[in-house]
Amino acid sequence: MADSKNPQECLIGVDLGGTKILAGVFDSQLQCLGRNKMSTKAERGADAVIERIARCVEEAIDECDLSRKQVRGVGVGTPGSVDPESGRVIFAANLHWEDVPLRKELERRLDMPVFVENDCNSSILGVYETELKAKPQHVIGLFLGTGIGGGLILNGKLYAGFRGTAGEVGHMVLEVGGPKCTCGNRGCFEALASRTAIFRKIQTAVKAGQKTVLTDLLGDDLNDMRSGDLLKAIRRGDKFVEKVVEEAAEYTGIAVANLINLFNPQVVVLGGGIIDALEDEMMAIIVETARDYAFPGSAKGVDIIATEVGDDAGILGAAVLVRKALLDAK
Asked: Domains of the chain by range and CATH?
Protein backbone atom coordinates (compact mmCIF):
# COMPACT_ATOMS: atom_id res chain seq x y z
CA MET A 1 0.00 0.00 0.00
CA ALA A 2 1.12 3.57 -0.64
CA ASP A 3 1.56 5.88 2.34
CA SER A 4 -0.67 8.93 1.82
CA LYS A 5 1.87 11.10 3.69
CA ASN A 6 4.63 9.95 1.37
CA PRO A 7 3.10 9.36 -2.06
CA GLN A 8 5.18 7.20 -4.31
CA GLU A 9 5.42 7.17 -8.05
CA CYS A 10 4.49 3.90 -9.68
CA LEU A 11 4.53 2.06 -12.97
CA ILE A 12 1.77 -0.17 -14.29
CA GLY A 13 2.38 -3.26 -16.37
CA VAL A 14 -0.46 -4.93 -18.26
CA ASP A 15 -0.34 -8.43 -19.69
CA LEU A 16 -3.04 -8.69 -22.34
CA GLY A 17 -3.79 -12.29 -23.24
CA GLY A 18 -6.35 -14.16 -25.27
CA THR A 19 -8.24 -15.17 -22.14
CA LYS A 20 -7.21 -12.73 -19.38
CA ILE A 21 -6.05 -9.17 -18.70
CA LEU A 22 -3.65 -8.84 -15.77
CA ALA A 23 -2.55 -5.44 -14.47
CA GLY A 24 0.28 -5.08 -11.95
CA VAL A 25 1.23 -1.95 -10.02
CA PHE A 26 4.97 -1.58 -9.35
CA ASP A 27 7.12 0.88 -7.44
CA SER A 28 10.29 2.38 -8.92
CA GLN A 29 12.28 -0.67 -7.73
CA LEU A 30 9.86 -2.97 -9.58
CA GLN A 31 8.37 -4.37 -6.38
CA CYS A 32 4.77 -5.36 -7.01
CA LEU A 33 2.34 -3.32 -4.90
CA GLY A 34 -0.79 -5.08 -6.13
CA ARG A 35 -2.57 -6.51 -9.14
CA ASN A 36 -5.96 -6.89 -10.73
CA LYS A 37 -7.28 -9.47 -13.19
CA MET A 38 -10.19 -9.55 -15.62
CA SER A 39 -11.26 -11.85 -18.43
CA THR A 40 -10.45 -10.51 -21.90
CA LYS A 41 -13.71 -11.36 -23.68
CA ALA A 42 -12.03 -10.92 -27.08
CA GLU A 43 -15.23 -11.96 -28.85
CA ARG A 44 -16.75 -8.58 -27.92
CA GLY A 45 -14.34 -6.75 -30.23
CA ALA A 46 -11.37 -4.41 -29.87
CA ASP A 47 -13.22 -1.40 -28.39
CA ALA A 48 -14.75 -3.50 -25.63
CA VAL A 49 -11.40 -5.14 -24.81
CA ILE A 50 -9.63 -1.75 -24.65
CA GLU A 51 -12.35 -0.52 -22.30
CA ARG A 52 -11.76 -3.58 -20.11
CA ILE A 53 -7.99 -2.94 -20.07
CA ALA A 54 -8.64 0.64 -18.89
CA ARG A 55 -11.02 -0.60 -16.20
CA CYS A 56 -8.54 -3.25 -15.07
CA VAL A 57 -5.83 -0.57 -14.72
CA GLU A 58 -8.12 1.80 -12.83
CA GLU A 59 -9.19 -0.93 -10.40
CA ALA A 60 -5.56 -1.95 -9.82
CA ILE A 61 -4.68 1.66 -8.95
CA ASP A 62 -7.66 1.88 -6.62
CA GLU A 63 -6.83 -1.43 -4.91
CA CYS A 64 -3.38 -0.04 -4.04
CA ASP A 65 -4.90 3.16 -2.61
CA LEU A 66 -2.99 5.20 -5.17
CA SER A 67 -4.09 8.09 -7.36
CA ARG A 68 -3.70 8.52 -11.11
CA LYS A 69 -1.25 11.37 -10.46
CA GLN A 70 1.20 8.86 -8.99
CA VAL A 71 1.26 6.74 -12.16
CA ARG A 72 4.21 7.56 -14.42
CA GLY A 73 3.01 5.37 -17.23
CA VAL A 74 1.31 2.17 -18.34
CA GLY A 75 3.06 -0.54 -20.33
CA VAL A 76 1.01 -3.06 -22.27
CA GLY A 77 2.30 -6.36 -23.60
CA THR A 78 -0.11 -7.50 -26.29
CA PRO A 79 -0.18 -10.61 -28.48
CA GLY A 80 0.63 -10.29 -32.15
CA SER A 81 2.73 -7.94 -34.28
CA VAL A 82 3.04 -4.42 -32.93
CA ASP A 83 4.41 -1.06 -34.10
CA PRO A 84 5.93 0.20 -30.81
CA GLU A 85 6.41 3.73 -32.19
CA SER A 86 2.71 4.30 -32.87
CA GLY A 87 1.43 1.73 -30.40
CA ARG A 88 -0.75 0.08 -33.03
CA VAL A 89 -1.43 -3.65 -33.01
CA ILE A 90 -0.90 -4.64 -36.63
CA PHE A 91 -2.30 -8.16 -36.31
CA ALA A 92 -3.19 -10.37 -33.35
CA ALA A 93 -4.74 -13.70 -34.33
CA ASN A 94 -5.88 -14.75 -30.84
CA LEU A 95 -7.67 -11.43 -30.31
CA HIS A 96 -8.97 -11.23 -33.91
CA TRP A 97 -7.42 -7.77 -34.16
CA GLU A 98 -6.10 -6.01 -37.23
CA ASP A 99 -4.67 -2.47 -37.21
CA VAL A 100 -5.95 -1.48 -33.75
CA PRO A 101 -4.70 1.88 -32.33
CA LEU A 102 -4.23 0.48 -28.81
CA ARG A 103 -1.91 3.19 -27.44
CA LYS A 104 -4.05 6.08 -28.71
CA GLU A 105 -7.30 4.61 -27.38
CA LEU A 106 -5.86 3.70 -23.97
CA GLU A 107 -4.24 7.14 -23.53
CA ARG A 108 -7.59 8.73 -24.34
CA ARG A 109 -9.37 6.63 -21.73
CA LEU A 110 -6.71 6.74 -19.00
CA ASP A 111 -5.17 10.19 -19.58
CA MET A 112 -1.65 8.91 -18.84
CA PRO A 113 1.34 7.81 -20.98
CA VAL A 114 0.97 4.37 -22.52
CA PHE A 115 3.68 2.23 -24.12
CA VAL A 116 2.84 -0.82 -26.22
CA GLU A 117 5.01 -3.78 -27.18
CA ASN A 118 4.53 -7.38 -28.23
CA ASP A 119 3.78 -9.34 -25.05
CA CYS A 120 6.67 -11.76 -25.39
CA ASN A 121 9.12 -8.98 -26.24
CA SER A 122 8.16 -7.16 -23.06
CA SER A 123 8.19 -10.42 -21.04
CA ILE A 124 11.71 -11.36 -22.08
CA LEU A 125 12.84 -7.79 -21.47
CA GLY A 126 11.49 -8.04 -17.91
CA VAL A 127 13.09 -11.42 -17.26
CA TYR A 128 16.36 -10.25 -18.81
CA GLU A 129 16.68 -7.06 -16.76
CA THR A 130 15.43 -8.37 -13.42
CA GLU A 131 16.00 -12.12 -13.21
CA LEU A 132 19.09 -12.42 -15.43
CA LYS A 133 20.45 -8.98 -14.36
CA ALA A 134 21.19 -8.19 -18.04
CA LYS A 135 24.31 -10.39 -17.91
CA PRO A 136 24.01 -12.86 -20.84
CA GLN A 137 24.27 -11.20 -24.25
CA HIS A 138 22.07 -13.65 -26.16
CA VAL A 139 18.76 -14.86 -24.68
CA ILE A 140 15.64 -16.40 -26.19
CA GLY A 141 12.31 -16.35 -24.38
CA LEU A 142 9.50 -18.81 -25.14
CA PHE A 143 6.11 -18.22 -23.55
CA LEU A 144 3.38 -20.87 -23.65
CA GLY A 145 -0.13 -19.70 -22.87
CA THR A 146 -3.33 -19.31 -24.88
CA GLY A 147 -0.93 -18.97 -27.80
CA ILE A 148 2.85 -19.24 -28.03
CA GLY A 149 5.20 -16.32 -28.48
CA GLY A 150 8.88 -15.57 -28.23
CA GLY A 151 11.25 -12.73 -27.51
CA LEU A 152 14.86 -12.32 -28.62
CA ILE A 153 17.69 -10.54 -26.82
CA LEU A 154 20.67 -10.41 -29.17
CA ASN A 155 23.89 -8.59 -28.30
CA GLY A 156 22.23 -7.40 -25.10
CA LYS A 157 19.32 -5.69 -26.86
CA LEU A 158 15.76 -6.59 -27.74
CA TYR A 159 15.73 -7.69 -31.37
CA ALA A 160 12.61 -6.73 -33.32
CA GLY A 161 13.69 -7.42 -36.90
CA PHE A 162 12.96 -5.57 -40.14
CA ARG A 163 9.21 -5.05 -39.62
CA GLY A 164 9.15 -5.46 -35.84
CA THR A 165 7.72 -8.98 -35.97
CA ALA A 166 10.81 -11.01 -35.00
CA GLY A 167 10.19 -13.64 -32.34
CA GLU A 168 6.91 -15.04 -33.69
CA VAL A 169 8.18 -18.51 -32.82
CA GLY A 170 4.67 -19.83 -32.24
CA HIS A 171 4.17 -19.82 -35.98
CA MET A 172 7.17 -21.95 -36.91
CA VAL A 173 5.70 -24.94 -38.73
CA LEU A 174 6.74 -28.11 -36.88
CA GLU A 175 4.34 -30.55 -38.54
CA VAL A 176 3.49 -30.07 -42.20
CA GLY A 177 -0.23 -30.62 -42.72
CA GLY A 178 -0.81 -30.59 -38.95
CA PRO A 179 -3.67 -28.98 -37.01
CA LYS A 180 -5.09 -25.66 -38.25
CA CYS A 181 -3.64 -22.62 -36.48
CA THR A 182 -5.41 -19.33 -35.72
CA CYS A 183 -3.00 -17.63 -38.17
CA GLY A 184 -4.41 -19.71 -41.04
CA ASN A 185 -1.47 -22.08 -41.50
CA ARG A 186 -1.31 -25.72 -40.47
CA GLY A 187 1.10 -27.43 -38.08
CA CYS A 188 2.38 -24.32 -36.32
CA PHE A 189 4.11 -24.78 -32.96
CA GLU A 190 1.18 -22.88 -31.40
CA ALA A 191 -1.33 -25.31 -32.91
CA LEU A 192 0.57 -28.20 -31.33
CA ALA A 193 1.68 -27.10 -27.85
CA SER A 194 -0.25 -24.04 -26.64
CA ARG A 195 -2.90 -24.27 -23.94
CA THR A 196 -5.52 -23.92 -26.69
CA ALA A 197 -3.98 -26.85 -28.60
CA ILE A 198 -3.69 -29.06 -25.50
CA PHE A 199 -7.30 -28.36 -24.47
CA ARG A 200 -8.58 -28.96 -28.00
CA LYS A 201 -6.78 -32.30 -28.22
CA ILE A 202 -8.23 -33.41 -24.89
CA GLN A 203 -11.79 -32.27 -25.70
CA THR A 204 -11.71 -33.94 -29.13
CA ALA A 205 -10.53 -37.23 -27.59
CA VAL A 206 -13.21 -37.09 -24.87
CA LYS A 207 -15.93 -36.58 -27.50
CA ALA A 208 -14.55 -39.70 -29.22
CA GLY A 209 -14.92 -41.71 -26.00
CA GLN A 210 -11.57 -41.20 -24.24
CA LYS A 211 -11.80 -41.61 -20.46
CA THR A 212 -10.11 -39.02 -18.25
CA VAL A 213 -10.16 -37.80 -14.66
CA LEU A 214 -10.90 -34.34 -16.05
CA THR A 215 -14.54 -35.21 -16.75
CA ASP A 216 -14.94 -36.22 -13.10
CA LEU A 217 -13.50 -32.87 -12.05
CA LEU A 218 -15.17 -30.59 -14.59
CA GLY A 219 -18.02 -32.39 -16.34
CA ASP A 220 -18.20 -33.91 -19.82
CA ASP A 221 -17.93 -30.66 -21.83
CA LEU A 222 -14.68 -29.53 -20.08
CA ASN A 223 -15.57 -25.88 -20.83
CA ASP A 224 -14.10 -24.63 -17.54
CA MET A 225 -10.75 -26.40 -17.97
CA ARG A 226 -7.66 -24.54 -16.72
CA SER A 227 -3.94 -25.33 -16.88
CA GLY A 228 -3.96 -26.30 -13.21
CA ASP A 229 -6.60 -28.96 -13.91
CA LEU A 230 -4.10 -30.80 -16.10
CA LEU A 231 -1.72 -31.01 -13.15
CA LYS A 232 -4.52 -32.32 -10.90
CA ALA A 233 -5.36 -35.03 -13.44
CA ILE A 234 -1.72 -36.10 -13.85
CA ARG A 235 -1.26 -36.29 -10.08
CA ARG A 236 -4.33 -38.52 -9.90
CA GLY A 237 -2.65 -40.93 -12.32
CA ASP A 238 -4.37 -39.87 -15.57
CA LYS A 239 -2.07 -41.39 -18.20
CA PHE A 240 -4.03 -39.86 -21.11
CA VAL A 241 -3.56 -36.28 -19.89
CA GLU A 242 0.06 -37.05 -19.02
CA LYS A 243 0.66 -38.25 -22.61
CA VAL A 244 -0.93 -35.12 -24.12
CA VAL A 245 1.23 -32.87 -21.93
CA GLU A 246 4.35 -34.92 -22.75
CA GLU A 247 3.64 -34.53 -26.48
CA ALA A 248 3.35 -30.74 -26.04
CA ALA A 249 6.67 -30.78 -24.14
CA GLU A 250 8.32 -32.74 -26.96
CA TYR A 251 7.13 -30.26 -29.59
CA THR A 252 8.43 -27.46 -27.36
CA GLY A 253 11.80 -29.21 -27.11
CA ILE A 254 11.99 -29.46 -30.91
CA ALA A 255 11.18 -25.75 -31.20
CA VAL A 256 13.90 -24.93 -28.65
CA ALA A 257 16.40 -27.02 -30.65
CA ASN A 258 15.51 -25.12 -33.84
CA LEU A 259 16.07 -21.81 -32.07
CA ILE A 260 19.38 -22.96 -30.58
CA ASN A 261 20.50 -24.01 -34.07
CA LEU A 262 19.47 -20.65 -35.49
CA PHE A 263 20.67 -18.21 -32.79
CA ASN A 264 23.08 -20.13 -30.54
CA PRO A 265 21.96 -18.26 -27.40
CA GLN A 266 23.50 -18.49 -23.94
CA VAL A 267 20.11 -18.94 -22.28
CA VAL A 268 16.67 -20.14 -23.35
CA VAL A 269 13.99 -19.07 -20.87
CA LEU A 270 10.55 -20.69 -20.82
CA GLY A 271 7.50 -19.10 -19.22
CA GLY A 272 3.78 -18.52 -19.57
CA GLY A 273 0.79 -20.12 -17.89
CA ILE A 274 1.44 -23.63 -19.19
CA ILE A 275 5.03 -23.71 -17.91
CA ASP A 276 3.97 -22.02 -14.68
CA ALA A 277 1.41 -24.77 -14.01
CA LEU A 278 3.32 -27.76 -15.41
CA GLU A 279 7.02 -26.94 -15.00
CA ASP A 280 7.85 -30.20 -13.17
CA GLU A 281 5.96 -32.27 -15.76
CA MET A 282 7.41 -30.56 -18.85
CA MET A 283 10.85 -29.03 -18.35
CA ALA A 284 12.89 -32.25 -18.15
CA ILE A 285 11.29 -33.47 -21.40
CA ILE A 286 11.82 -30.09 -23.09
CA VAL A 287 15.50 -30.01 -22.13
CA GLU A 288 16.17 -33.63 -23.14
CA THR A 289 14.35 -33.25 -26.48
CA ALA A 290 16.09 -29.95 -27.25
CA ARG A 291 19.51 -31.47 -26.66
CA ASP A 292 18.59 -34.52 -28.77
CA TYR A 293 17.44 -32.41 -31.74
CA ALA A 294 19.98 -29.58 -31.59
CA PHE A 295 22.86 -29.62 -34.06
CA PRO A 296 25.80 -31.46 -32.44
CA GLY A 297 27.77 -29.06 -30.28
CA SER A 298 25.40 -26.09 -30.67
CA ALA A 299 23.59 -26.73 -27.38
CA LYS A 300 26.80 -27.14 -25.34
CA GLY A 301 26.78 -24.72 -22.42
CA VAL A 302 23.30 -23.39 -23.27
CA ASP A 303 21.07 -23.03 -20.20
CA ILE A 304 17.43 -24.05 -20.78
CA ILE A 305 15.44 -22.82 -17.79
CA ALA A 306 11.97 -21.90 -16.57
CA THR A 307 11.60 -18.30 -15.47
CA GLU A 308 11.51 -17.81 -11.70
CA VAL A 309 8.92 -15.02 -11.99
CA GLY A 310 6.49 -17.46 -13.58
CA ASP A 311 3.31 -16.08 -15.11
CA ASP A 312 4.16 -12.61 -13.71
CA ALA A 313 6.77 -12.17 -16.46
CA GLY A 314 4.15 -10.35 -18.56
CA ILE A 315 3.24 -7.62 -16.07
CA LEU A 316 6.83 -7.25 -14.87
CA GLY A 317 8.10 -6.90 -18.43
CA ALA A 318 5.45 -4.32 -19.28
CA ALA A 319 6.51 -2.29 -16.21
CA VAL A 320 10.16 -2.55 -17.33
CA LEU A 321 9.00 -1.26 -20.72
CA VAL A 322 7.64 1.92 -19.06
CA ARG A 323 10.78 2.44 -16.97
CA LYS A 324 13.00 2.00 -20.03
CA ALA A 325 10.89 4.39 -22.15
CA LEU A 326 10.99 7.06 -19.43
CA LEU A 327 14.76 6.70 -19.02
CA ASP A 328 15.30 6.85 -22.79
CA ALA A 329 13.19 10.04 -22.95
CA LYS A 330 15.51 11.88 -20.51
From this structure: 10-124+312-329 (3.30.420.40), 136-307 (3.30.420.40)
